[in-house]
């Protein structure tokens, strides 16, 4: 019989985050809402604090979440969600986000209400003031208000609309949920951001490299017939820069990241005195890197034009991470949010070898979401 895992039960006393301190002091809560896009400033007791993007967390809030996540990973147990229900609404498929969030909620003593669009409910309208004579029989405003009467929080993975990127990047659906819900809304990946993945990635980086100041991170585009939105890369990029790492981004021509995010990234890098380069070739980004973050993302230039997008993808073959490339890093480790296409995005040799951090990243989804939920939702 293997050694028993030792569990430590934490006292139930309140964990003091910036948020809880501000609530106690009766101060407006602005830290969780981006500038003008989501409800804010918020007054305690009126508008809930949402988790839409990591940039809305103060450094202190982020530290509190990560510290608690690390303790939970070491075996501390907490029952902050005992007797409470979290609604999980998926408008797109998921493996890790659904499984890790459900497990996290159950392990904190809570339970889940799981709803999948198309099978469990109908199309919802997000536009304000529109005449609802289309296919959506219900408005997000009403769905959000009703579900808020049943649950402690709503976690949403909105659909991607396929509209031009200038429209998609507004994240209108998650914003509508945040505007109308009477409970905290958690973004389970919108077009622009994947903050839950970002939290897990940050914990993984810290566990692997320790202090990230001055470490070198390469973000590389990879070949895939089904590239994702750049949400994961946006969240990772901003988190790495904020942590003081130097970041290089490699991608084929026409696969630039969102221009607004790039502007924020340049500002962040300048503020912290770290290097940030983008538009590099694969072979330019990886040399000297401590971590290589691989991900395929769509061309935003042809986001709503499938034929042009297919042509662009066809012209961008050969972006595969293999051992000779990884060997050019500084004892480089590989990160990827998954799902990963084996031997197309990354070779088996790298995925199954000692460089891979993929399963640790996936595991850390569980621990960091428990840390987040404990702090965001405790009474
Ligand atoms: N990384 C991630 O979010 O995985 P899923 O899409 O499977 O949830």
3D architecture notes:
The structure is a single chain. The chain is an alpha/beta fold and 379 residues long. It folds into 2 domains: 177 residues, Rossmann fold; 175 residues, 3-Layer(aba) Sandwich (Rossmann fold), CATH 3.40.50.1370. 37% of the residues lie in helices and 14% in strands. The protein has a 5-stranded parallel beta sheet. Helix 2 packs across helix 14 and helix 8 runs parallel beside helix 9. It starts with 7 loop residues before the first strand and ends with a helix. The N terminus is likely disordered. Bound molecules: phosphoric acid mono(formamide)ester.
SS-based class = alpha/beta
CATH-assigned fold name of the largest domain: Rossmann fold
Number of helices: 14
Low-confidence stretches: 1-23, 26-45
- Ligand kinds: phosphoric acid mono(formamide)ester
- Radius of gyration (Å): 21 Å
The fraction of residues assigned to DSSP E strands is: 5-15%
Q: Note the overall shape.
A: globular
Helix content: 25-40%
**How many structural domains?**
2
- Taking the alpha carbons of the first and last residues, their distance comes to 40 Å
Name of the CATH class of the largest domain: Alpha Beta
Mean pLDDT figure: 90
Give, in order, the helices and strands: EHHEEHEEEHEHHEHEHEHEHEHHEHH
Going by CATH, the homologous superfamily of the largest domain would be: Aspartate/ornithine carbamoyltransferase
Please list the strands of the largest sheet in the order they lie side by side.
11-10-9-12-13
CATH architecture of the largest domain: 3-Layer(aba) Sandwich
Give the total of beta strands. Answer: 13
Biggest beta sheet attributes: 5 strands, parallel
């Amino acid at each position: 019989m293997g050694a028993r895992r030792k569990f430590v039960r934490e006292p139930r006393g309140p964990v003091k985050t910036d948020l809880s301190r501000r609530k106690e002091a009766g101060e407006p809560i602005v830290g969780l809402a981006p500038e003008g896009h989501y409800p804010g400033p918020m007054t305690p007791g009126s508008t809930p604090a949402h988790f839409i993007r990591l940039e809305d967390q103060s450094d202190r809030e982020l530290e509190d979440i990560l510290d608690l996540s690390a303790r939970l990973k070491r075996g501390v147990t907490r029952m902050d969600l005992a007797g409470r229900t979290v609604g999980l609404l998926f408008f797109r498929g998921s493996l890790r986000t659904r499984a890790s969030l459900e497990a996290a909620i159950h392990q904190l003593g809570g339970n889940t209400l799981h709803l999948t669009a198309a099978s469990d409910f109908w199309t919802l309208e997000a536009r304000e003031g529109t005449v609802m004579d289309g296919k959506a029989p219900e408005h997000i405003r009403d769905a959000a208000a009703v579900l808020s009467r049943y649950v402690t929080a709503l976690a949403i993975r909105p659909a991607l609309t396929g509209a031009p990127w200038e429209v998609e990047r507004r994240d209108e659906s998650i914003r509508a949920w945040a505007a109308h819900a009477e409970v905290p809304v958690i973004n389970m990946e919108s077009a622009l951001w994947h903050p839950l993945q970002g939290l897990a990635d940050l914990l993984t980086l810290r566990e692997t490299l320790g202090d990230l100041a001055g470490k070198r991170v390469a973000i590389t585009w990879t070949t895939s017939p089904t590239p994702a939105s750049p949400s994961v890369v946006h969240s990772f990029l901003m988190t790495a820069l904020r942590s003081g790492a130097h970041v290089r981004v490699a991608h084929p021509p026409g696969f630039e990241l969102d221009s607004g995010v790039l502007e924020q990234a340049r500002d962040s890098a300048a503020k912290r005195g770290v290097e940030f380069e983008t538009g590099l070739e694969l072979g330019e980004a990886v040399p000297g890197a401590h971590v290589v973050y691989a991900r395929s993302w769509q061309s935003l230039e042809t986001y709503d034009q499938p034929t042009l997008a297919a042509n662009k993808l066809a012209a961008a073959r050969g972006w595969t991470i293999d051992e000779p490339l990884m060997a050019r890093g500084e004892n480089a480790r590989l990160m990827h949010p998954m799902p990963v296409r084996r031997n197309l995005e990354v070779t088996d040799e790298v995925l199954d070898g000692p460089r891979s951090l993929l399963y640790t990243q996936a595991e850390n989804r569980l621990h960091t979401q428990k840390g987040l939920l404990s702090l965001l939702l405790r009474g």
